[in-house]
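Hello Y.,

Per our agreement to keep a running log of every chain we model this quarter, I'm adding this entry. I've kept the format consistent with earlier entries: sequence first, then predicted structure.
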Amino acid sequence: LLKADGTTLGADNGIGVAMAMALCEEKDLRHGPLELIFTIDEETGLTGARNLQPGFLKAKRLINIDSEEEGVLFVGCAGGAESNIVFGRPTRRCSAPVYAVKVSGLNGGHSGLTIHENRGNALKALAQLLLTMGATQPVSIIKFEGGDKHNAIPREAFALIRSAASPADLKASLEHFRASFAQEYGKAEPRASFECLPSDSADGGLSGDDSATFLRLLLAIPHGVVTMSRDIPGLVESSSNLAAISSEGGSFRILLSSRSSVASAVERVLLNIEAIATLAGAAYIFKGSYPGWQPDMDSTLLVQCKAAWKELSGKDPHVTAIHAGLECGIIGSKYPGMDMISMGPNMWNVHSPDEKLSISSSARVYDYLKRTVASLAR
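Predicted structure for the entry above:
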């Protein structure tokens, strides 16, 4: 296995770029004309694919090397949308002691590929912890931050608070929450860590009532699986990710990423989020969306790719769709009728420091890519 030290590996999608470039150096590979597309900012907004101009490509078939399971051919993907909630309230002076409260050590993961695993969300956990701490003495929130990517489940979250509760009471609340979190998530989040430590003085802070409203807003926002597919067993159809929060003064900006393979379903999720924001007296801001990729089980390219995999491995590949955004959705909308498939080697925990890539799987998938390109030439 290949992994990085203390950061994400970037195999998603560095390995796809490497395989595409390696094809150019294959002197004995028989193939037809090849067009290689390298796009920018896929993970942060699909910028390159969005700016691909109609007519730029001549090809009618697309092999997308941007999947994470060997022996699996993807023929569809979810579309999605990003939105913001802005919660703003006046701050006030208060002499209560300041504490730093932190949630860390969660697994995180890709907000589409691992959303069905019910992993902990650090933002949700911190909101629940602070509500627990404020059950007897109001908590005043000065700062609340966590998460940094729209397509990653938050692993860490941090808050500065004021509380007149005794250190012993705060510790008791933290230990009570730690026990309930462990009971709920068990072995799924073995490295979860919760801290509450005295901190230096800080300016301002929301009132106790406004702080409670903000925390309840975070708990009400949908996170996780919303609906499952009726067509492909085990496939998530719709989901939403409470992705990140930044704060300045008494203003808190919440980033959400919602997905669905059904356009009307993601619209319903967004309406739900907007309704919750409105009830909390917060502003809802729609940031933008990207299209999904509708599966074509009669695809000629799919038939050829299935045959090439069976020829190489002796087994039929698994054909499915993915609950994540692939550039195929955008490219297909710009080039109607483009015959597409997505494939790739085994990798795990992408978008997190625990990301790993199988070297042996990469070698096998590259051999498969060469065989597939050669079969298309035939």
